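new request in #modeling-help
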Amino acid sequence: MRRFVVSCAATAMLVATAARAEEPWAERVIGAHIDQSTLSGTLDAEALEVLRDAGERLFVGRFTEADGVGRPMATQAIVPTKRKRPPAETFVRSAGLDAGSCAACHNQPVDGGAGDFVTNVFTSEGFESADFDSLDPQFSNERGTNHLMGAGLIELLAREMTADLQAVRAMALKVARESGQPVTQALETKGVNFGSITAGPDGLVDISGIEGVDADLVLRPFSQKGVMTSLRQFTVNALNHHHGMQAVERFGARWTGEADFDGDGKANEISDGDVSAMVAWQAGLEPPVRMQPQQPAWRDASARGEDVFADLGCGECHIPALPLASLKFADPGPLDMAGTLREGELAEVIYDLELLEWAASLPRNEKGEVLVPLFGDLKRHVIADQEVAKLGNELLAQRFVERNVFMTAELWGIGSTDPYGHRNDVTSLDGIIRAHGGEGRAAREAYIAAAERERSDLIAFLKTLVIEQ
Amino acid sequence: MKLIVATTVLLAFGASSAGAGEAPAADVPLMHEEALAAGIDHAYRGPWEYFVGGGAAALDCNGDRLPDLFIAGGEERAQLYVNRSATGGALRFEPKDAGIAERDLKKVLGAYPFDVDNDGVKDLVVIRLGENLILKGGPECTFRKMNEAYAFDGRKAWTAAFAASWEEGQTFPTLAFGNYVDRAAPGSPWGTCDDNDLYRPSAAAEPDYSGWQPLSPGFCALSMLFTDWNRSGEPALRITNDRHYYRGGEEQLWKVTPGSAPRLYTRADGWQHLTIWGMGIAEGDLEGDGYPEYALTSMGDTKLQVLDREADEESPIYEDVAFDRGATAHKPYAGGDLKPSTGWHAEFADFNNDGALDLFIAKGNVEQMEDFASVDPDNLLIGGWDGKFTEAGHLAGIALPTKGRGAVVTDFNMDGRLDLLVVNREQPASLFRNLGAKSGDGARVAGNFVAIELHQDGANPDAVGALISVKSGTRTFNRTVQVGGGHASGHAGFVHVGIGTAERAQIRIKWPDGDWSPPYRVFGNNFVRIERGSDAARYWYPPESDAWQAAAKE
C-alpha cells in the first residue's frame, strides 16, 4: 500500500479516517467514517491521493461484524428489500455474502484487477428468490469478476456518449415539434452507432430502432451485461451484495425509514464519504497498457497481430480507442438515479484524473482528446446464435437485457485476466474467440479461416494488452 | 405574496405548539406557492350555496400534454387557464376564453375532465348550482355545450359531486351526479337532501343521456366515486354525505350492475352505518394488494378505511385505521387553533417519489362555524415505510391560512414531481410548485418516478377504470384511472407513480374489461404511453425549451 505525505488540509479532510483504528489490532476496517462534507470542488493532487488512499483501504480491507458485515434481514437486491427471516448462514457462496473484501475477488494481477473462476459471482435480482442456494442457472447468472483498471475513463466515456445520444434525441424532438413532421435520427457517438430513433411532433419517440443501449439512452458501462451506470452505483450495490455493508445513500433512513435496514445491529454502515473514497480509488486506477515484449519474436508477432485484429473485423466492436474530451470525474455523476448519490445532493466534487501520474502517458488526438485504448465500444451485442451458443448460456435476462446479449468486453488488460468469457470458464484466447456467435460470428469465422500464423499473431497481440504490476 | 409568505412563517412557527409531530423520516417536498406569479388570480366566491364546491379540473386541452386548468368561481366566472410552464421551471398559466357562454361559466362548483365521446379530446363535465353541463373539447382549448345534442338534462339541482364509469359493453360512460340540499323543499335545508342522478347512455352511436334515473335516497352528497372495491371488475358507486343536513342518512355504496337498476348495499351485505360530515373521497392502494383503501374527509376526524379481508368477498366491511396510521388530521397542526378541522378535497399521491402514497387534504372552515377551527391549514401527510402518516404541511410550505376546498394534484411542469393547486373559498387559489425534497434552505432531487398515459382504441380511449400496476422488486404500486372523488375536482392525463430507489419498473395494465396486458419494461424518471395491444411502452419527452413552447403556441 502506498504511503503519502499529506498536507494539513488533506489530513483534516480525512481526520476521521486517520484515527480509524484506535488499536493496531482492532478487528475492523472502518474506525470512523470519511466526512463527505469536507470534500468540495476539484480536489488537488494531494487531497485526491489522500481520498484514494482511504478508498483503497476500504477496497482491500476485510470487513468484520464491527464494521457492519452481514445483512440478516436484507437481501442482495439493488433496491432495498427485506428478508422475511434471516438466512441460516451469514456467508453463502451463491446468494452472498460471498467475500470479505472487494479485493478478495478483484486482485488479478493487482488490487482492482479481475478474478479467477473461483471468484465468480451469482447475480439474481434478489427479490422473490433471494435465498437460492443452488448454482443451477435457473436461479442466477454466474459471472466472472471484471477488472476495474481504467474504470474512471470508462465511466467518463459513457457519460460523454450518453450526453451525445440524448442530445440527438433532444434535437430530433425539437425539429419534429417545430416542423410538425416525424424526424428520424441516427444515434451515433464517438464513431459508435446505436441505431436510430424517430421523434414525433407530439413528443412521442419511436425507440424500436435503438441498438445496444437502453431505451433511455443512458449508456451503462459496468458489469458484463452493461447494466450498471456508475462506479458509485456499482460500489453501493456490491457492498450490500457481497459484504452486507449498506451505504446510507441507499439503505439509510431517507429511503428505508431505518438506519439499520439489514438488521445486523450496526447503523449507517457506509457513509457517503466512504463511498466517495472507494469511487475515487477505482476511478483513478491506472488503465491497462500495451506492453512491449522483450522477445523480438513476440514483438514482431504482436505487430502483425494488430493488423490481423483489424483485418478479421475484431475492431468493429473491440474498437481500439475512443476519444475522451475531459478527464474531470465528477462524483456523483450526472446519470445516477435515486438511491445512488446524485448531482445536487451535495457539493460538487471532481476528481481530476489528469492529476494522476499515468494520465500523461495516454495518447491524444489532434483535438487534445485522450484516446482511451479500451478495445471496446461500450455497446451491447447479441453474442450467441444457434450454432455457436457457448456465450448464450444464461437463462435469466438481467435488468431488461436479454440472456444472450452482453456488452462488448473491453480487451485492455486481457493479457492479465484469464480465464475469459462472462462466466470466466474459457481458458484460452483462442477458445473465447471461437465462442463468438451472433454479431461476433463473422469475425469468429474469419479467425477460424485464417492461417494458423495469423491466429497466432493475433494471440500474440492480445497478450500484450496487460495490466501493469 | 409577501403577506402570504409572512403568514406561512407564522403558521409554521406555531406548528410546534399545535400538534405537528416529528418530521417524517422520508423526504418532505418543498412546495413553493406561486399562483400570482404564475398568472392565476382566481377565487371561489359566493353566498352559502358556495360554502361547498370550489373545484378545478386539470386536462390537456391543446394537445401538448401539459395539464391546463379549469377553475370554478362560484357566483363569479369559472376560468380556463392554459399551461405555459417551462419544463421543470416556474409555473405559468394564461387565462383563455374557452368559448363557453357567460351564464354557463357562473354558478360553477366544480368540474371533471375526461373523454366523454371517445374522440380523443378531453371534455368537461361541469357541476353547478343549477344546470350541469357536458362541454365537448374542441381545438385549442375551446368547448361546446352538448346538453341538447346528448339529450342530457342537466336539471337544476345543487350539484357538488360527480363520477363517471364505462359500464361493461357500453360505448359511452355512465354519469353520476351527487346533489346537495334541495333548496325548494319545505323546511330546507334541514332534512331536505336531494336525490342523486344517474345517467346511463343508450346504445346509440352518439352519446344519448336521455336515460336519467334518480338515485334515491340522497343524503347530501359532497363526493362520489366509481370504485372496484372488491376487485370484482364491476365498479360500485361510493358516496360520501354531509350529515349536517340529512336525517337518517349515512354513507352510501351503490351496487351498479350493468343492465340492472342500482341498489344500495345494506346491513345485510355488511355495509356499516357511518355518519360523518363527508366532504371528499380519496382512493389509494396503500397495501399494494390491489384492494383500494379510502380516505373520507369530514369535520373532525378523517376516516381511513381498509377492507376487512376476512369478510365475504361480496361484503363491503371496512375498518377505520386512521388513528393507527396517524391520518386522522382532526385538528390544525399549525396556527394554534385547537378546534376540530374541516376537511374537503382528499387525494392520495406520492409527492416525494419515495414509493409510498402520501395524503393531501384541503382544509378550511365552512364559513364562520365557531365550533371548528377558523385557521385550518391544508394537510400533507407523508406516508412512511411503516404504513403510518406524518404531518409535513408546515414543513412543505403549504400551511396557509386559507379556506381550502377543491384541489388538483398533478405535475404541471413535467419535471416528475407533483405540484398542487388548491381552490380557496373567498381567497385566491394557491398554486404550489414542487421543488423537490426539502434540504436545508433549498431542495434536492427526490425519488424516481414513472408517469403513465393509457390508450385503447374505440370506446373509453383513456381507459377509465383501468388498474395500473407498477412493480419494482417486491413492491407493487397500484393506481386506478378514475373520474370522480376528491371535492369537485379531478384531473386527466399522465398517472404519476413514485418508485423510490428503483431505476426501472415493470408495468402491467388491467384494462377496464378485465384483460391484463403483458408487462411493459420502463426506465424510471420517464413519461410513457401504453397503447393497448402494443409490444412496448412509448416514451414521451416534454419540450426542453421554454422558447419553443412560447413559439409553438403563438
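bot summary: The mean pLDDT of chain A is 93.
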